[in-house]
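Quick log. Single chain, no ligands specified.
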Amino acid sequence: MYVCWMRLFPELVQDFEGFDETPEDATKEVVHLMNELNFISTDSVDELIAPYAVPMLNEDLMDIQEGNKDTT
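-> predicted structure:
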C-alpha cells in the first residue's frame, strides 16, 4: 500500500513511519468514544472489525476488482 500511495500522493506518505497505536488501542479508543455517546459496546466493535483482522488474499482482491468492473 505504501508504494501505491507514494506514487499517487507522495506528499502524504513522505515521512510516514507507521501507526503509533495497536489495533487493540484503536478499538479501546473507539469504544470509549462510542460509550460517551451510549452507542456501542466492546463486543459490538470487536464483531464489526473482525472481518478486517484477516489479511486479504490476492484472490479476494481480484474478486473485488471483478465485482467493481461489473458495476461500471
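The CA atoms of residues 38 and 44 lie 12 Å apart.
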